[in-house]
Amino acid sequence: MTKTGEREITKKENVNGGAGYVLMEALLNEEERAEHCRIFSQVTIHPGCELGYHEHHGETETYYVLSGSATYIDNDKEYEIKAGDVTFCKDGDGHGIKNHGTEPIIFIALVLKK
């Protein structure tokens, strides 16, 4: 078990070619995630920043939005996402997020390997 404030937050610049930076807080360490879970993290994207478009091969990625809003790119379509929304990027597809709002968007990211 870990508590808020105990976990390391990593600042990653220009993720997948996106503008600005993304903050990632791993909710489980590598040992706890085991072999099929690559990422289980809380992600924060501040206004003007983005997580660049990228594809998944041999894995899927799900986002559960906790707060804020942003533009979600799902292959060639764009959607506005907000708190309570869930996105799913299946194996072989691509996605990204652009925060054009005035508040950070915070979501849980889960990447599962096949």
TrEMBL record:
GO terms for molecular function: metal ion binding. CDD domains: cupin_TM1287-like. It comes from the Bacteria. It holds the Pfam family Cupin_2. Keywords: Metal-binding. InterPro entries: Cupin_2, GPI/OXD, RmlC-like_jellyroll, RmlC_Cupin_sf. Residues 43-109 form the Cupin type-2 domain. This is Cupin domain-containing protein. It comes from Dorea formicigenerans. The lineage of its organism: Bacteria, Bacillati, Bacillota, Clostridia, Lachnospirales.
